[in-house]
């Protein structure tokens, strides 16, 4: 993937906190022990394949503005690698970050485009529908 100008991770390491990485025995919502909070990964050259394969939606979508960078809005946007779902992953400490108007409008637009859209925070999940309503999943 080619880098998009203005779309560098920079000081953002939100994915290193909110994502679960089984290979590293890292739970969702806990900062990865390999995260160099000044930017980067201390085991970058030997990081697990799951980390190598991960791409932040904000970095690969030219349509997502700088104001939607994950650490700024508290929500990581991503295609679920195991399904056709679109996910908004939040820090469990701030589970409703996906309700930020910028993010919520984007999620509703994805749902209107026919996607199954889920917001997640730790073990909690919500489905967002094309008409703008949402429901917590059991």
Question: What does this 3D model show about the protein?
Answer:
There is one protein chain. The protein has five helices and five strands; from the N terminus they run ααααββαβββ. It is α+β, with helices and mostly antiparallel strands and 138 residues long. The protein has one domain. It is globular and about 45 Å long. It starts with 14 loop residues before the first helix and ends with a strand. The mean pLDDT is 90.
| Strand percentage | 15-25%
Q: What is the straight-line distance between the termini?
A: 36 Å
| Rg over C-alpha atoms, rounded to the nearest angstrom | 15 Å
Classify the helix fraction into a percent range: 10-25%
What number of domains? 1
Put simply, the count of helices is: 5
Please identify the oligomeric state: single chain
Kindly report the average pLDDT value. 90
- In order across it, which strands form the biggest sheet? 1-2-3-4-5
Describe the global form: globular
Q: Please report the total strand number as a whole number.
A: 5
Class inferred from helices and paired strands: alpha+beta
Main sheet summary? 5 strands, mixed
Regions with pLDDT < 50 over 5+ consecutive residues?
none
Order of helices and strands: HHHHEEHEEE
């Amino acid at each position: 993937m080619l880098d998009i100008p203005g779309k560098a991770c920079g000081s953002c390491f939100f994915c290193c906190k909110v994502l679960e990485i089984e290979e590293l025995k890292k739970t969702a919502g806990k900062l990865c022990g390999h995260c160099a909070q000044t930017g980067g990964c201390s085991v970058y050259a030997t990081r697990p394949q799951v980390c190598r394969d991960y791409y932040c939606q904000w970095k690969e979508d030219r349509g997502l503005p700088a104001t939607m960078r994950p650490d700024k809005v508290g929500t990581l946007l991503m295609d679920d690698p195991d399904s056709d779902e679109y996910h908004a992953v939040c820090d469990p400490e701030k589970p409703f970050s996906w309700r930020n108007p910028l993010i919520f409008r984007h999620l509703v637009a994805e749902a209107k485009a026919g996607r199954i859209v889920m917001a997640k925070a730790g073990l909690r999940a919500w489905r967002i529908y094309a008409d703008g309503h949402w429901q917590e999943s059991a």
